[in-house]
Amino acid sequence: MQDLRIIVTGGTLDKVHDTFTEGLAFASEERTHIPDMLVTSRCYFPTVQQLFLKDSLEFTEEDRNAVANAILSAPEPAIVITHGTGTMEQTAHFLVGKNCGKTVVLTGALRPYSFGNSDASFNLGGAIIAAQILHPGVWAIMNGRIFEARNVKKDVLNGRFDLPPTLLRE
Asked: Among residues 19, 34, 44, 93, which is most buried (max CB within 10 A)?
């Protein structure tokens, strides 16, 4: 088993229902759900580092650089990044070549953990396992599938991540 760090950046996984706006938002205490998810799963070994809680649609180049720097400065060889699904593809592409021989796995959720019936715990568990067994590089784990960085693609129409149509035919 490899030492593993979870770097939290936000996304739908960490959102809650905001009664004032009737939309999704981060909880006022700006605390991630990841520690609670790990306790429920009886998974006690990862280090959790909350970098920020942000909707990935609002990510800037500075945010992506902060993620890259957090990966580089982490002592662990296996890294899971919780990330919004809206721009996971862009961040995966950005991180290629910046991970210094580490295994980096991005994951998130299409439905907030706080809502129940969420894919958040399933995706997080898959990412934790994958980060320990995949070879170094940048990957994403969503909906029970492993994607190399170049193949990360959200299928908005079907509400899931899937291989690009050209790869499905091969």
From this structure: 34
Number of independent structural domains in the chain = 1
- Tens of pLDDT, residue by residue over 68-78, are 999 999 999 99
Tell which residue, 44, 47, 51, 38, has the closest CA to residue 10: 51
CATH number of the domain within which 67 lies = 3.40.50.1170
Name which of 80, 71, 124, 119 is nearest 99 in CA terms. Answer: 71
Show the domain range for 103.
4-169
pLDDT digits (tens, 9 = 90+) for 17-54: 777 787 887 876 678 999 999 999 999 999 999 999 99
Strand-pair category, 137-142 with 103-107: parallel
Angle formed at CA 33 by CA 30 and CA 37, multiple of 5 degrees: 165
